[in-house]
């Protein structure tokens, strides 16, 4: 474990990514406590403070209703990270399990069925499919998660399939089969550990992509609904007042860039940590 941590810490950008991720998690968990104007997160109107530019009182300015943009940007981390956590918590196990099955039983009907269905999903633009699913459902954060989850699992099935198909030919897997180990043991205890580095790296990188796709759904009104703030929704609302009230769009966009940068740098660090050649 110390060796892995040493390799991770050799890359200073990875530590920066970890710091950004921890800061994002802190904002998400403690947002109602740390924001300077918690009342501005929900229904609130103060036209005397409406459309104020960034200042000492309101670091990111205020919107057309007089709500503090900084408070709403910080609170948006909660919905963004909640979405990515739930989408990946469902999509990754499903995709990995199907990839393991198809890889281990390659050349059989199991492989054919799983991988042909996976190919169909992969061939369709995932964002278009998510938009279509979310448009059919009621526009809520939960339904946006469902739409993304349906489109996300194939992106784990394909790489795990390739890895499992290669690992099953190794001697330690053949030895487990010879001594009568169960299929579940072989899949979960012999093959899966060889896929973990790839899965963990992809998961760290995918957090940013899930957040970005969730923001796109929110941008077109298919995600979190007002008055609860969401990155995409705030960017969409603020775009109507560009360029005069630039802060309404700029700071939510920077919030997305901040969290995506953090998870991308963290993903690079995890990849380097498991890279035997480094």
Oligomer: single chain
The biggest sheet, with number of strands, parallel, antiparallel or mixed sense and barrel status, is: none
Number of helical stretches of at least 4 residues: 11
CATH class: Mainly Alpha
Q: What is the H-and-E element order? A: HHHHHHHHHHH
Q: Spans with pLDDT under 50 lasting ≥5 residues? A: none
Looking at CATH, which topology would you report?
MetI-like fold
Could you say what the CATH architecture is? Orthogonal Bundle
Portion of residues in helices? over 70%
Model description:
With 278 residues, the chain is mainly α. Helix content is 72%, strand content 0%. The chain has eleven helices and no strands. The protein has helices spanning 2-9, 12-34, 69-104, 109-123, 126-136, 141-152, 154-167, 171-178, 183-219, 231-239, 247-274. The two termini are 16 Å apart.
Topology:
Layout (H helix, E strand, L loop, with lengths): L1 H8 L2 H23 L34 H36 L4 H15 L2 H11 L4 H12 L1 H14 L3 H8 L4 H37 L11 H9 L7 H28 L4
Helix pairs in contact: 1-11, 2-3, 2-11, 3-4, 3-6, 3-7, 3-9, 3-11, 4-7, 5-6, 7-9, 8-9, 9-10, 9-11, 10-11
List keywords for this structure.
mainly alpha, 72% helix, 278 residues, elongated, MetI-like fold
Summarize the structure.
By secondary structure, this protein is mostly helical. The protein has helices spanning 2-9, 12-34, 69-104, 109-123, 126-136, 141-152, 154-167, 171-178, 183-219, 231-239, 247-274.
């Amino acid at each position: 474990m110390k060796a892995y941590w040493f390799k991770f810490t050799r890359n200073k950008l990875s530590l920066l990514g970890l710091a950004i991720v921890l800061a994002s998690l802190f904002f998400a968990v403690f947002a109602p406590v740390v924001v300077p104007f918690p009342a501005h997160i929900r229904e609130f109107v103060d036209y005397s403070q409406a459309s104020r530019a960034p200042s000492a009182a309101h670091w990111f300015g205020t919107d057309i209703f007089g709500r503090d943009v900084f408070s709403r940007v910080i609170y948006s981390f909660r919905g963004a990270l909640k979405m990515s956590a739930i989408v990946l918590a469902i999509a990754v196990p499903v995709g990995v399990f199907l990839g393991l099955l198809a890889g281990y039983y390659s050349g059989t009907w199991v492989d054919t069925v799983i991988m042909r269905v996976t190919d169909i999903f992969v061939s369709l633009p995932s964002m278009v499919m998510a938009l279509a699913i979310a448009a059919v459902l009621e526009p809520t954060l939960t339904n946006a998660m469902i739409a993304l989850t349906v489109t996300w699992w194939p992106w784990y099935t394909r790489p795990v399939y390739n890895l499992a198909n290669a690992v099953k030919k190794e001697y330690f897997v053949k030895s487990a089969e010879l001594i009568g180990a169960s299929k579940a043991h072989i899949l979960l205890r012999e093959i899966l550990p060889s896929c973990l580095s790839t899965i963990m790296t992809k998961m760290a990188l995918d957090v940013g992509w899930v957040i970005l796709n969730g923001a796109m759904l929110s941008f077109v009104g298919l995600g979190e609904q007002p008055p609860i703030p969401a990155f995409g929704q705030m960017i969409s609302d603020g775009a109507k007042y560009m360029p005069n009230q630039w802060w309404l769009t700029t700071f939510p966009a920077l919030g997305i860039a901040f969290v995506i940068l953090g998870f991308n740098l963290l993903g690079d660090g995890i990849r380097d940590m498991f890279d035997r050649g480094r």
